[in-house]
DNA sequence: GCATAAGCGGAGGCAGCCTCCGTATATTTA
DNA sequence: TAAATATACGGAGGCTGCCTCCGCTTATGC
């Protein structure tokens, strides 16, 4: 790839992330191109469809999430699991505007991002298995349960991390006495 | 309101509900007008903005939900609360495509639908108070907690009522042992 | 039946989507 | 270093959907 092409690609990705975060996935692609200082033609050559652009932005975010996962410490399995779920919440919130797309990627095996999801799933699955071994969580809990509820919580109070954390704890601890 | 106007209004509402359910809130308004057998002008006179149309559709759904609430039986408070949350899940699922709008109405006091939400909130609040009295739920649980988690669950597995019910029960019972 | 208030509908201006292709520039080669 | 060429750029233009405006139509009251 030519140097100018790579440069434009990066700038488009940056501006797209900002625009999607501000205005949601319906942000004008012409505006994104303008913000990146290129013509629409260039945008469409790099990202033939809006979906391609969205996916490219998400791919970046997945990297960040995978990095977080690698840095997790594994003292108490129950606490480790909670920490990981909380980290996911923060990442999803940082991906404001794309939460719905993220959820599609997670739930739909057809998604081109599903492969990257798998890596994160396996982190969840490992932590979950450890937590089950030590009896920290109920044995019928599954990794998809966790993925789904985390996305549900992240989406339903997208702009309020405090409430997200509260709902996560309610979920973990239960509501019925 | 003239008879023909009322007729067109109703038909537009019906078609809009169908279109939003099928294609989401971005469904073409011209298509909706066509499906209802009227010109776009008529659609825009009745519903000056897309938002107005969405809100009108939701208003209908709220009525249905309020009716469900009135029919609730109040034997065991814990069970009654669960039944009400489950009923909400079903209604939100039936409002497929508008879940996000619904959540906005619930969370944003500025929304023109917030008034109708209040009626439903008070049902939740009553059931919640009763459940607390009998010690069926933890005392720090709030009505907004419930509203938010229900929407999160409904949204995160929009098309799978079985998983919705499972997640609701996980939430109620808790995950940590 | 007529007058008129109320309602209808689609033409048209505008914005954003996406394609296409002439122009410009990075890279390779001699 | 300069020519050759592969690669990339960018915006004009066709298209679709949004929304407004206003001349035409029709229900309703007298």
Task: Quickly list its features.
homodimer, 177 residues, mainly alpha, elongated, DNA-binding
Supply the CATH architecture of the largest domain in chain A. Answer: Orthogonal Bundle
| CATH homologous group name of the largest domain in chain A | Tetracycline Repressor, domain 2
Given helix and strand content, the structural type of chain A is: mainly alpha
Instruction: Give the SSE order of chain A as H and E letters.
Output: HHHHHHHHH
Total number of strands of chain A? 0
Oligomerization? homodimer
Rg over CA atoms of chain A: 18 Å
- Count of discrete alpha- or pi-helical segments spanning 4 or more residues of chain A: 9
Give the C-level CATH assignment of the largest domain in chain A.
Mainly Alpha
Tally of individual domains of chain A: 2
The two chains with the largest interface, and their residue counts, are: A-B, 30 and 30 residues
Largest sheet of chain A: none
Helix content of chain A: over 70%
Q: Any idea what the shape of chain A is? A: elongated
Low-confidence stretches of chain A: none
CATH topology of the largest domain in chain A: Tetracycline Repressor, domain 2
How is this structure best described in words?
The structure is a homodimer of 177-residue chains. Chain A has two domains: 1-48, Arc Repressor Mutant, subunit A (Orthogonal Bundle); 56-173, Tetracycline Repressor, domain 2 (Orthogonal Bundle). Helices cover 73% and strands 0% of the residues of chain A. Chain A has nine helices and no strands. Chain A is elongated, with a radius of gyration of 18 Å. The model of chain A has no long low-confidence stretch (mean pLDDT 93). Chains A and B meet through helix 6, helix 8 and helix 9 of A and helix 6, helix 8 and helix 9 of B. Chain A binds a DNA duplex (30 and 30 nucleotides) through residues 1-5, 8, 28-31, 33, 38-42, 44-45, 48-50.
């Amino acid at each position: 790839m030519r140097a100018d092409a790579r440069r434009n690609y990066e700038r488009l990705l940056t501006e797209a992330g900002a625009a999607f975060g501000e205005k949601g996935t319906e942000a004008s692609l012409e505006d994104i191109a303008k913000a990146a200082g290129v013509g629409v033609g260039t945008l469409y050559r790099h990202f033939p469809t809006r979906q391609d652009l969205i996916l490219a932005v998400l791919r970046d975010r997945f990297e960040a999430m995978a990095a977080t996962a690698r840095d997790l410490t594994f003292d108490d399995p129950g606490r480790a699991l909670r920490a990981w779920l909380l980290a996911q919440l923060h990442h999803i919130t940082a991906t404001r505007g794309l939460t719905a797309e993220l959820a599609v990627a997670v739930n739909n095996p057809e998604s081109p991002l599903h492969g990257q999801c798998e890596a994160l799933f396996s982190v969840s699955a490992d932590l979950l298995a450890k937590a089950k071994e030590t009896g920290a969580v109920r044995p019928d809990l599954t990794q998809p349960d966790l993925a789904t509820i985390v996305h549900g919580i992240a989406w339903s109070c997208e702009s309020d991390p405090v409430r997200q954390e509260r709902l996560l704890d309610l979920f973990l601890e239960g509501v019925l006495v």
